[in-house]
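Q: I'm writing up a methods section and want to include an example of the input and output format. Could you take the sequence below and give the corresponding predicted structure tokens, formatted cleanly so I can copy it straight into the document?
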Amino acid sequence: MDVLKHKCFLEELLFWTIKYEFPQKMVTFLLNMLPDQDYKIAFTKTFVQHYAFIMKTLKKSHESDTMSNRIVHISVQLFSNEELARQVTEECQLLDIMVTVLLYMMESCLIKSELQDEENSLHVVVNCGEALLKNNTYWPLVSDFINILSHQSVAKKFLEDHGLLVTWMNFVSFFQGMNLNKRELNEHVEFESQTYYAAFAAELEACAQPMWGLLSHCKVRETQEYTRNVVRYCLEALQDWFDAINFVDEPAPNQVTFHLPLHRYFAMFLSKAVKCQELDLDTILPDQEMLMKLMIHPLQIQASLSEIHSNMWVRNGLQIKGQAMTYVQSHFCNSMIDPDIYLLQVCASRLDPDYFISSVFERFKVVDLLTMASQHQNTVLDSEHERSMLEGALTFLVLLLSLRLHLGMTDDEILRAEMVAQLCMNDRTHSSLLDLIPENPNPKSGIIPGSLSFESVLSAVADFKAPVFEPGGSMQQGMYTPKAEVWDKEFDPVMVILRTVYRRDVQSAMDRYTAFLKQSGKFPGNPWPPYKKRTPLHPSYKGLIKLLHCKTLHIVLFTLLYKILMDHQNLSEHVLCMVLYLIELGLENSPEQESDEEESASGQERCHDSWFPGSNLVSNMRHFINYVRVRVPETAPEVKREPPASTSSDGLASSQSSRRKSLQRENSGTAQVFSLVAERRKKFQEIINRNTSEANQVVRPKTSMKWSAPGATPQLTTAILEVKESILSLLIKLHHKLSGKQNSYYPPWLDDVDVLIHPEIPRYSHGDGMTAVERILLKAAVQSRLNKRIIEEICRKVTPPVPPKKISSAEKKTLDKEERRQKARERQQKLLAEFASRQKSFMETAMDVESPDADIAMEVATSEQHVSEAIYDCVICGQSGPSTEERPTGLVVLLQASSVLGQCRNSTEPKKLPTTEEEQIYPWDTCAALHDVRLTTLQRYFKDSSCLQAVSIGWEGGVYVQTCGHTLHIDCHKSYMESLRNDQVLQGFSVDKGEFTCPLCRQFANSVLPCYPGNNVERSLWQSHSNKCMQDLVQEVEDLQEQLGTFPVSISSETNLSKEMESVMKDIKSTTQKKYTDYSKSPGSPDNDFLFMYSVARTNLELELVHRGGNLCSGGASTAGKRSCLNQLFHVLAMHMRLYSIDSAYNPWRKLTQPMQDKNSELSEEQPEVPVLYRDVSSLLLIQILTMPQPLHKEHFTCIIKVLFTLLYTQGLAALSVKCSAEDRMAWKESGDLKKNTSSGEKSWEVLLGHVISELSKGKIYEEGETEELRVVNPDSVECYLQQFCLPFLRITSLLQHHLFGGDLPSCQEDEEFTVLASCLGLLPSFQSAHQFTSASCLDWPVPAFDMVSQWCSELVSFADKHPDQVKALLIQEPKWDLPRLLQLPENYNTIFQYYHRKTCTVCTKVPKDPAVCLVCGTFVCLKGLCCKQQSYCECVLHSQNCGAGTGIFLLINASVIIIIRGHRFCLWGSVYLDAHGEEDRDLRRGKPLYICKERYKVLEQQWVSHTFDHINKRWGPHYNGL
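A: Here is the clean output for your methods example:
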């Protein structure tokens, strides 16, 4: 390289810029002046002048990545301008400099090639282990080179300059044969080298891409000269390479290199010459000897691929599989395997077909297998690999003869075939299709994914499946799936085999094809790969057809058919399938029609050395072969047979002269093997002699020595087999064999002559082996009358049964073993199937969250109501029995804290996620906030203990209990937990926190709820309707509550059951955070626990109501059906609540059912109790029920409801009275007074309303300014208001009754919900007709109504005297809560992204690295942000505890993905934003516009409301508070 001489400041500047490895500021400075045209030219020339220096600095650099980027940053601006590039090329020899610099760069890392002749090889290759290749250090220079070659004028100069081409081919030959693999035969390789990444990258970037660049300029006739130049120097380089590695005619065994760039240059330029430049192929092809050498290495690769897939290279480690996969992978295939196969097709079309076919079988090492003898010795291959290698050889031949990628297909046809192949393997997303279809690597080649042709072909071959959500929880993306007619007409197994990286994809394509045929009713069984018609061959490659019509191939096909028919070892259905495919290809591509009359006389003179008379498959098919002489080991069964006396040894149907060559041809046995090899030798020799070159003559003997038969084989003897078959007769017998019936084949044309005229019959296009045989026989008959006649004759002879096989004892053993294995397999299948069906039935009843049809009632025995005791199955030990005190059974439950109820809002309009500064969300109107405010207000004015019984908590952080419905013994569960603790497998849950998965259905759980013994008594008790009067019942209820202190003996004494109940209560308490359970002013007071316990019941009832859609109109059993555990939960809660006695003076029951005597006692206390009218009736209900002894009688339950309903009704009237205007109040009061004394006065709302108004008027209740005026003049609206006011209570009560006493809920229309529920609860004495029904008719007062009402109102009056401002606020208003909803999201993701990704965090005022937003309340948080960490909790985790009591749903702004936090675990849920093709764009990598997918968002919301995140999403991991 020249010494640099600097003449100006710019050169000096650039020199130091390079020396300091392109500092960013200098790069920017130098680039900023480029708009000045003179500077641009001067700078470019200086840059070119320093090119070698850049290369040297780059090689030494430690930061080569950064430096590379900066070099390209500059060079891309200089060399992308065609005019400038051309000028520099002319004036500064840019091309010479670049090629020389690249050559020098690679020369620094060359090593001696070990390919072929290790000792004497003169060839050098790059060492892929060097940093230069491993780190891709060369890419900036190669990328510049590719860049300038994209300019036509520059590429023209390159292609015309012979010196440059020679240098370039010299450069390419450094990569020829790099990264050589040697097969390990003894032990596993110690260290798996990963150099193959570097090798494949180097060939793709340094050789293939410049090649595609050059090819893009050879598109028209005028460019023929360029192609001739490239091909010429390429061949010279190849010849030098063969000489350097000392190659003669046999490749060295057990070596393979996947890198033959020179072969590929040669192939691709040939292809271009024929396709675009109309060049005559023969004018640029070398002589036969060169073609023979050229085919060897690509063929070696094909054979090695087969060896690798047959596990013969397993000792070389996984990396060799990696190489085989990369070689065919979509980004590499059109620079690797496609040119290789094309080159082999060219060689095959020009070489002698017998030579080519025998070379293939020899390369694949299966020559020895091709014998008619039932046993053989294979000297080069273990028998376990024989079958897959034979399959490989035949599959390769099918590929070679069927592929038309470079032999006549247009670009659009190629694109279509590629797309169909990929879609047949699997449904694909749009982006993965783009990735999988090999694009023409040169960007200017026109056929690029995303172009019009891509989209139009896609819509022609595929249907779009919109993204759906599967019940298993996996999110489906939008997929493309092949249209039915594509499966029908275009599915091409050959193309699929060529393009599969993993072998399983071929199977997957076949499975999908099978499914399509079953579904469309075209074929019920297991089909074979369909035969597909090919694009016609380009005339230049017609010679390829000769392969199908050569005797060697016919002998192989005949032998294989015979072996399959005789059930020889190591043959498979796949082998038969490929054999039939080849026969069919031969029939489809037969040369000119043979005339039936003259028995192909031309064949006569060649007849002596062969089995078959001619080379045309059509006539050879009917040729009968009588006897074959085989060489077999002496042990073989054939030896025992005496040859028939008449034919001593002229076994063949041909003339006597066959004697001379008996060993070479007539014996298809080991003898024939040698004939295959010898034949090949002979042909090679002829060609060499034709080219008589002295040098080769000398080398000759050395190679042929290797093939003398190895001495190790046992004695071979010659035996004569009686065959008497032709290919046609073998096919017909195979048909019988496949069908399992004698004479199953009947020529179709005997019934319908049209078959011969229109042979394209759809019924033959899909099917199994029998269909294939029928199709072939039909084609044979169509092509020749003689064949037709012979087929008929063969069918007429009743075929004798196939001679039974003599089985040697060794084979017998293996057969027995196989049979035993088969039986074992069947047994296992049966067991698995049984287990699966059991599991399935469990799944059906236990899994999907919403389906009401899965209501198979729980085993707890709703079914057998007459049985007194419930029977449970333990899913661990499998025993069934009742739950007892000593050995209690429990339900598998998941306890989780929930704030879903607290998120209900008082409006039907859902809140939107804020996307501007103006739209902010304030949580004042949520259910949780309002309940909180109410409790705090009550606590200001009233006695604490009474406040804590006037409301329910749990709207935020309430405990929700759900079960999968499976039960287990509690002691079994303990040992199960113990085993989980010792199990070292990494589980997605934490056993120490009591988490586990249900042993049967694997649903996530964290506790066991004990089942109370004798769970069915109550069901029989309430059946009998009692006729006791209301007063008696009220008294009974009171007495029962009085017995509080006295428990059934069992519970007071410590039994296992009571211990378990206590421990589960602890679990329930510890499920939620302390702040959600402590509301009392004096911490730790028992009132707190009391409140918490009945609130748990309330939370679960309210949530079930939400899951039913907020009302009970749908009726039916509980949606949870089998999965409801409320009954068990009630027992546990009741047992604990009865430990707290309520002082009888304060017992709310008395206040509800007895007029108080002494009114003054209350006023003396500093803080009065909460007035009855301020108490929440549903809470009172739960307190009453849970403090009664269990099991409860239905009559007492109804009594409690009746009493509470009177209170509720009065609350409704009071709330109504406050809403009226003063004059309305007067009117109601008067009309009420009038009717007061009528008989039904107590059951008329007018009377009662009037009474309430007059009672409340005594105090300062109505004096405050009017709050909101409700003009309720018309009676109907009053009735409607009262019904709406009472409905929430009726719903909760009906659910409770359903769970405690069984019985279905009636279904109804929305407008009759009140009446139906009221009669269901026994509030309606006799059901009246709807038109005269009033809500007041449900009232049943235990004591005179007016006394009761007056007493209740007086409490308010006395409160109003002290705090007139608060009276109204505390009256119970029933707002209409909407169902809980997540925030509404905007249509377009960009709206969210633009607002949030630059938004600053409110806590730390920085822009977070990973911003996220809560979809429940809209809070903006930093994911993983250390800035907002508090006591080791990151912000998202903290927010999930505050907002959702441990459940958080966050949208990650920069990734468009939703993440769920549940307690100490988290999971990625997926995305609700998809692109136009229905795909997610996680991390926004593809940058496509994304739109909301409403269905997915609905599913997310559904999982949130139904608390099923844990069950549906499978991939959970711990977050260690770091999110």
